[in-house]
Amino acid sequence: MIPKIYLIITDGSYNYQNAVIDQFDIISIPKKLVKKRILVNCDGCFIHYFLKELKISETYRNSFIRNMQNILECGYCLEIKLQSTSLDLIDYCWNERVNEMVREKSELDHVFSWLSTLGGAFSALGDYMTKYAETAGKISINQFKVAARLGNPQIISRCKLYFALSLIQIKKFKVAKKIIHKVYKNELNSIVIDVKLLRMCKGIWAKLQYEHFLYIMKPNRSCNMK
């Protein structure tokens, strides 16, 4: 017969786990154990690492079972009552991870601000020279990559509109039209609607119509959008 230890983890009013420990694993069981119990008060933090070690280490698990033979022979189960930790522990690994995430976000915000300033300048010049509009489009693509890293859907949509604006300046009206329409439609279907983003869509759409009108009014131009 495979030796087993029945374990209950509680805080006195609520049972957090009922489990069976054998030489192969520690397995949670749904039913409440009615066996005679031996009560042990333990620090909650200690129990966390204790259970983790029982789960991953076969050597530790078998050693624990051997040293608890007296409980097995008497037919008792082990009840562990959780106590408040005597000392607050600092999770240095998680602290380092959060620190890196904060630093990364700060740097990304900084980069995005610079790209926005630079992109705005080239976009303004793009109304007069195509090469500046093309540069503004490249900057908006880089902004999109940064926004995707930041994980902000509103900023991502704005970057798409910036790119659509650069397409309008280089007379790529059809592609710009599709981008504006998609961003506008997605925003209307979102749970929280960004009114400013909708107004941006309408403003860039008005520019598209105006630029397309000027384009087709020039001699030898087709009335269809490119």
From TrEMBL:
It comes from the Eukaryota. It holds the Pfam family DUF4807. PANTHER family: GH02722P (PTHR36693:SF1). This is Uncharacterized protein.
